Amino acid sequence: MLLEDKIWVAQGQNPCYLLLNQANRHGLIAGASGTGKTVTLKVIAEGFSQAGVPVFMADVKGDVRGMCQAGADNEKMQARIQKFGIQGWSYEGAPCRFWTMLEGDGIPVRVTVSDMGPTLLARLLELTDVQQGVLDIVFRVADDQGLLLIDLKDLRAMLNYVAEHSKEIETTYGRVSSQSVGAILRSLISVEDQGGSIFFGEPNLDLQDWFACDENGRGYVNILDAAKLINSPTIYSMFLLWMLSSLFETLPEVGDLDKPKFVFFFDEAHLLFNGMPGELLDKIVQVVKLIRSKGVGVYFITQSPSDIPDAVLAQLSNRVQHGLRAYTPAEQKAVRAAAQSFRENPAFKTEDVILELGTGEALVSFLDESGRPSIVENAKVLPPQCLMAAPDSRYANLVIVDQMDLSSKYATATDAESAFEVLAAKAQAEEQAAAEAKAAKEQAEAEAKAAKERAAAEAKAAKEQAAAEAKVAKEAERKAAAEERARQKRADQLNKTVNSVVGQVGREVGRQLIRGLFGSLKR
Known about the structure:
Blueprint: E1 2-3, E2 6-11, E3 15-19, E4 27-30, H1 37-50, E5 55-59, H2 75-84, E6 96-100, E7 107-108, H3 113-125, H4 129-144, H5 152-164, H6 166-173, H7 178-193, H8 196-199, E8 221-225, H9 233-250, E9 262-266, H10 270-273, H11 278-290, E10 296-302, H12 310-313, E11 318-321, H13 329-340, H14 350-356, E12 361-365, E13 377-381, H15 393-402, H16 404-410, H17 419-522
Parallel strand pairs: 4-10, 4-11, 5-8, 5-9, 6-7, 6-8, 9-10
Antiparallel strand pairs: 1-2, 2-3, 2-13, 11-12, 12-13
Helix pairs in contact: 3-4, 3-9, 4-5, 4-7, 5-7, 5-17, 13-14
């Protein structure tokens, strides 16, 4: 309940006020299940909203949405109001906006892979140091080549690209083993099964949409539907850490303000720090330390303060400690540590009171005007002015209708050209070029083979023609030789005949001459 510049949260021997000008010193709401943490959360959140400070919180059990509806009056509530001596009490709901990450009722929340970054993504994928190093290389190669990493298919495509070109990039970026790439790809399957394919994408969430007030100047209570999301604790915690980091990186320095610009509630805070690597924890500690100078208050809600690392716990100055149960030595140690974190009240022993607190009771210590922790009060938390339970469907529907303009901005997922499309087009072009080169090679080989066959055929034809011509020439030569022999034979025969004739004639002439001669002699 807002009273001027302070939120009245609880009443002990003295009223417990959370001062708005000290609210960005962060805070803690702790206590065992069923001790009243959600009611305390609502009281503080609606106080911020009434002061014009927008807030964000996750709704794990579905009852935080009841903040959109005015509380219900009954005898029990009247008795509590009278007991606290509250003047001017009224039931009223807070202006709310519902958000969802896994296709629930609300405005879709999406974040790009690039915005999440390799450090948080490595935590989400539960990678080893070596595998995170490979993921760093993948992001660096994507940046250097102007490839956008928007959704998980972009990251998958980029991992495959780096694996295929590992030899080429090794000298520039370092070694990328196929085993590490395979391990990251397997981890992506788990994230996709938890809804990562819905969460990663565009349009990317603009955190400025959470820095808004209604027409009456009341800050919007941005409520993330985490009923299903809590079953995907890694995605849940990584989204909250991303949001905190993004606020730190994008908001300007404003110093100490009269009231925060924005308040961020981390419910189920133990999920954020389970198994968190030291490097990431150091970054979160730095953000928590410095983000207050940007006008942001951070409040962790968890069962035990021991769920939060000491380095973070040391930054949480405004504390509401509900009852704890201590059945084991470890739990007893946690109770002692929680008691010692308060400024002692001489009226009671803090450690004993923590174990005896009932539902709706708490040990409360907020910073005073000088920024010092106040003496711890054993107090009862005020009732919220909004509904304690889940809202009626008609009130929830009114919120959904009221946020239609904002819903339309994020309703439809878009798939702009990014690494997947660019690499797919590149691979297709390379495949086409390879196919064309193969076809050209095959064509050249076919043409060479055809030319070779033609040359062989021409050579064969020339050889056959030469053989035929040689045969014809040989036949002509043989025929000429035969004709020559025939001619010679005829000439020889003629000569023989002539010689025979000549011989006969000669012999006859000789005989005649002889006869003539001898005839003369006889006479």
